[in-house]
Structure formats: C-alpha cells, structure tokens
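Below is a concrete protein record.
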Amino acid sequence: MADIKTWESEDVGCTIRIDYDLCTGCGECVEVCPTEVYEVVNEKSTAPNVDECIECCACVEGCPQDAIEHSSC
C-alpha cells in the first residue's frame, strides 16, 4: 500500500497529495512554489500552507520524482 499524505484546502478548494514512497525530500517543490506552500520535514515534503496555494502547478511540474499530485493540475 502506497504511503500517500494528503493536504486539503477548504479556502482554495484544492487537494495536494504527496507519495512518500517516491518523495526524496530534495526540496524542489519548496524552491519552485511561489507562495511557500511546501516545507521539507524529516526528509519528506509537506504542504502545511496549502491554504496559500494559487494552483499554478509549479510543484507538480518541478518534482523530479513525480511524487506530487494536485487536484488542479
């Protein structure tokens, strides 16, 4: 069973899922996100600021491991 973490925003209406089996914690999502949605914690990406998401999809496009799924992308 895949280890997928989910963050949902009622304000923005989006869902971000990160597959922890694929995520290497490289931090590329942190670098490319213009609104600081992401943080790397314990060598894995997290999306604690999902309410700040502007649905630009930079995180999905920038993740070299294809570990991020975004409901708007």
Observations:
- The chain has two helices and five strands.
- Residues 8 and 17 are 9 Å apart (CA to CA).
